[in-house]
Amino acid sequence: MSLDGFPPFISAQLHYLINHFPDKIKVEQVLSGGKTYTGGLDRFTLLIPYCLDYIKWDIIYNAEFPLAPPDIIFGPEDEDFYPLHMTGRVGEGDLKFRSILSDWNYKDPTRLLALIQELRDRYMAYQKKRVGEVDDDRLTFEISTICSREGIEMQISSGAEKPEEVKFAVPLMDMNINKMVHGCPWRHPQKIYLQVIYPVGKKYASTPSAPRLKLMSTTELRALFTIEDVKLPSWLDGMCMAEYLPHLEESLQKQVLEAVSLIDIRRHFIEALAPLFGRPLEADPVFCRKATFLASSGSFVFLVHFHISTLFPKQQPALMLQSSQHISPQGIPKKSSLLAEYPWSPRWEASQMAERIFDFLADESLNFKRFCNESQPQH
Amino acid sequence: MGDLVLQKIAISGPTLASMIQRLSSSPADLDGLLFGHVTCIAPSALSDDSVQSTSDSQLVATISSFLSFPSLLSFYDSLGRVDSSRLTLTNLNQKPLIGWFSFRRKTPLRPSMRESSVTRSLPSNPQLYLPVQNASSESLFAPSIFLLFTTPLQDQFIQTCQYRAFQFQSSNLCFNPLPIDIVNIGPAFRGHYGAFSPSSALPFLNCELKSSSSVNECRNEENLFGMERIAKDQSELDMCAEGMQIGRLNQLIGPEAVNYTAGLEDLYEKMLCKIESLATLVEASSAKVVEQENHNRKLRYKVARSAGLE
């Protein structure tokens, strides 16, 4: 992201925040608060990940007064979130948070990050308190049993139109997936969460309805594991999260371990292609999801792209051919559609899979050559 | 002390206009204090026009003037704690404080973290509480009004200023949005005129003839002090009047008047000259202020630029 137009002291702090925040943070609506633009940009909206969603906070610096710390406007739903108000006991965290603001040093690029992290902690406590105040027996019970889980986040959402709901984001499995992948390229730790949404019970309803469940993962994890393919165990009447989670975690753990072991199977398959197709022009070395080979049929030279899904070898690789000699009027090389229907068995040896694909392509290349020549404009 | 809950805020058109003028000419964000009074207004019972009448009397805060500060963190610190040593009656020139305002361009129209903290700690000094005018019982109003100004996120061809008023309720820690009446002439404002009190900054001058004061000699000490002040005011006035005495106004009546008007006109002319020279003085000094402000801005700018280079 380009951070041009900010005075240097703001851009230094914003850069540091974006690069060092443990999760992906977004910046939107960058504006200038001056009468003219001479002072530079000094206010923006931060999208901070919270509870599998984003909270939007407006950060207001003042380009004219660099010595003052930025002010913050919280979301319209959190009107009574006053982190600066001192009520009751003053904890250590409060003092730390207050010292960030009172000893503000605009030359220190780490300050904004420290401020946002402390504020997010304060926000988490605020949401927890609000959820705790909801008058619903089941929720009170759930909170008392799973509150101690590390990293759990909760949020209450209420609007004029929609019914009140309490949302939980439960991080699953205490395993470091990043460490399990050899040569892991991920900057942020990859996690799987269960989102649990409880409708807040009406006092007169006899049986509380089941919560809405959804598995979610950090986006980069898709290279290894497709969360949508996981089937959630069903939620029985009268169940609680403390009962539900252990089974889910156990089965997920198995699936993640399997997904990691599948990397080697894919690697082995790509290696088996080499004796027939030659060395790959390009291959994904970490997750082994993609490989491209150069092939020829007589004088017709073309590329073969292999797209290998996370379900390989159960699901066969999808192939795509790309001509090196035919170019469309738009200047793009001619490509075939994705080929995913050809003889396949997951039980074959890798070398046999490679041979079968090689044989299939020997026939298919003729079709592709014809397709390329037919659509070629006549000179 | 329980909160006095306001029903609305009133501000006169010229006061609002001069505030907006001050805000829109400011190079950056701005904040300041609001002065005025709180009145209990009994709604007019006359109903020969279509004024909706409520039976209860209303508590209305009227903003009569403001004071803006050229820099942030002027009377509060970065945690939003009000420095009560800066907000004393003497510092405020005995003006009645009813709240404060903040102006920040291109931001949402909601109180920010620091603003809510400032608003909350503003009523910390009970000396600044105001007695409510026309109230049936003795009650004091804590300065709890917050007026927020901003501009739309996108630049517009027409200069637009958005504003919203709040009263902070210390009992449940929340901002209560309040409607703003811009006081104008018309039947809807009859209540305001009934409760109107002039709030001139000029001292009250006793124009009573000096000779008559000798009639009642027996006065207590308190009045003696009052008389000293009157004498001081009178001497100041005499200096402006240049020997023109109030007794001589008698001469304006009757046959001598014709000769006398020339002298009076002469006095007026001299006064006008004085006012004019005062105006040029003010103009020159405000030019100097602007110059100094620009200089300060340039210095701040240098500081801001230098930060990134280290």
From TrEMBL, chain A:
The organism of origin for this protein: Gossypium stocksii
The membrane-spanning stretches of this chain are none
Subcellular location as annotated: Cytoplasm; Nucleus
**UniProt GO BP:** cell division; chromatin organization; double-strand break repair
This protein's name: BRISC and BRCA1-A complex member 2
Q: Which family does it belong to?
A: Belongs to the BABAM2 family.
Query: What are the protein's UniProt keywords?
Result: Apoptosis, Cell cycle, Cell division, Chromatin regulator, Cytoplasm, DNA damage, DNA repair, Mitosis, Nucleus, Repeat, Ubl conjugation pathway
Looking up Pfam families in the UniProt record yields: BRE
Residues in coiled coil: none
UniProtKB/TrEMBL annotation, chain B:
GO function term, MF aspect, one: polyubiquitin modification-dependent protein binding
Give the superkingdom in one word. Eukaryota
Q: Name one Pfam family in it.
A: MPN_2A_DUB_like
GO cellular component terms, A-Z: nucleus
Q: Which InterPro entries match?
A: FAM175, FAM175_plant
- Recorded protein name is BRCA1-A complex subunit Abraxas 1
Q: Which organism is it from?
A: Gossypium stocksii
